[in-house]
Write a structure and sequence with these properties.
It is a single chain. The protein is α+β, with helices and mostly antiparallel strands and 441 residues long. The protein is 27% helix and 24% strand. The strands form five sheets. Strands 5, 6, 7, 8, 9, 10, 11, 14 and 17 form a nine-stranded antiparallel sheet that branches.
Length: 441
């Protein structure tokens, strides 16, 4: 499998004609990229968009790479260890010292009201200063100068902890910002492996072969060898500067930030590199992949305890972060309520879980809400957890990110008489489908 972004886009274009849109008309870096993505989403389309001419730059912008489940399904095809590539394509050109200029990259402004230009598709690679275990993750970067960016580590996971440990030693956290990657490499960075396992191992498992990595030019770090652009630098200790506001995955501007400071020391680029953009706000390219990863993590956690989990969905309507629908085939009384705290404990972003029976399609929100409307009684079927760790960017949480969480048991009472669901005979449905197909042809 080719592990670079270009080959993925080319293969996807060949497999799904019309799903890679190339914009030949010149576009600006202020708002144009986001506006085009939003217009396609308004039309319920989620193509990969290649902006071939960016005003004032000779680098194209590639956006919306994994905005659809179709693209993610196409990307999904356990390797052994990673393989080091000594001379990767991104070393074609290297800028360092005074030559480092973030303004040379076509970094967009996404929404009116954003604090400035933002890197949204930069996968950050760093190493635990105590254990040496590497990690990767996506964080927003606000351009503030030639070599200076503000960064928010608000997810409060590994990268936040690594920076905290480095700062406790009064040391910077060396890190590389990697742009232009195969979707499976990006997906692996969202996984939740044990603390002693690096995320590159997860990436290799998704690729089905060893991940090719290469050493940075100035840092003692390795990054995916297939990268288009690599920005090398460090997050400063004991330095905080205002960062934001920025249009976040919640659909709101966020002024909450950890306000860390990143200083770039070098930029390495491929020959004629592609600059990848991920839409901000509730853009599918921004939130579809995290939802898929959360579904897998919830399924893994539940199936260790609940024997008959039949479906898990983390919907876009809940920003692919806050809401989960779970269906189970009940075998014992109390299983639905047992499932609720398990799901809410998988990820601190989750704050609402609805558990339904296996006859409900968790991917059909009207079906889920029908179950809530007809099978739930508020005085017996609600589970409320107050004062819980939540998402710092949730506008309904307090300024510390503390939130309340809700579980809804929308299953039929186990082993008790209940209303009989209306179901059409299968042979009549087959007849109806055949007739409609015939009339439609």
């Amino acid at each position: 499998m080719s592990q670079d972004l270009r080959s993925f886009v080319a293969a996807y274009d060949k497999a799904h004609p019309g799903e890679v849109v190339r914009i030949a008309e010149p576009v600006g870096i202020e708002y144009d990229v986001m506006a085009l993505v939003l217009e396609y989403e308004r039309r319920r389309r989620y193509p990969i968009v290649v902006f071939e001419q960016v005003k004032g730059y000779d680098i194209p912008i590639v956006a919306n790479v994994v905005a659809s489940r179709r693209a993610l399904a196409f990307a999904l095809g356990v390797p052994q260890n990673t393989v080091v590539v000594p001379d990767p394509p991104f070393r074609h050109r290297r800028l360092s010292g005074d030559a480092v200029d973030l303004g040379a990259l076509p970094i967009p402004v996404y929404f009116p009201g954003d604090a400035g230009r933002y890197l949204t598709a930069g996968m950050v690679v760093a190493r635990d200063p105590d254990t040496g275990v590497e990690t990767e993750g996506y964080h927003r970067f606000q351009v503030k100068g030639r070599n200076r960016m503000g960064v928010s580590l608000h997810s409060r996971r590994r990268m936040f902890e690594y920076q905290r440990r480095a700062e406790a030693k009064n040391q910077p956290l060396p890190c590389a910002i990697v742009l232009g990657l195969h979707p499976l490499i990006s997906m692996g960075s969202l996984a939740y492996p044990p603390p002693d396992v690096g995320k590159f191992e997860v990436v290799g498992g998704l690729l089905g072969e060893s991940l090719e990595i290469a050493p940075c030019t100035t840092l003692d770090l390795h990054v995916p060898a297939s990268a288009e652009i690599v920005i090398e630098g460090e997050i400063l200790p004991n330095a905080r500067e205002p960062e934001g506001p920025f249009g976040e995955f919640t659909g709101y501007f966020s002024r909450r930030s950890t306000e860390h400071v990143f200083v770039a020391q070098a930029i390495a680029l491929r020959e004629r590199p592609w600059f990848q953009s991920i839409g901000s706000g509730r853009a599918g390219d921004h939130i579809t992949t995290p939802g898929l990863v959360r579904e897998a993590e919830i399924t893994n956690a539940l199936t260790r305890v609940i024997p008959n989990v039949t479906g898990v969905h983390v919907p876009l309507s809940g920003t692919s972060s806050f809401i989960a629908y779970v269906s189970i085939k009940q075998s014992r009384p109390g299983e639905a309520k047992q499932a609720i705290p398990i799901v809410l404990g998988v990820d601190h972003y989750l704050k609402l879980v609805i558990v339904v029976d296996d006859d409900i399609d968790v991917f059909d929100e009207s079906d889920v809400l029908w179950a809530v409307a007809t099978r739930m009684q508020a005085d017996r079927d609600l589970v409320i957890i107050s004062g819980s760790l939540g998402a710092l960017l949730d506008p309904s949480a307090d300024e510390r990110g503390v939130t309340a969480k809700l579980g809804i048991d929308a299953t039929r009472p186990f082993g008790q008489p209940f209303g009989e669901k209306l179901v059409m005979a299968p042979d009549r449905m087959a007849w109806a489908r055949a007739l409609v197909d015939k009339l439609s042809s």
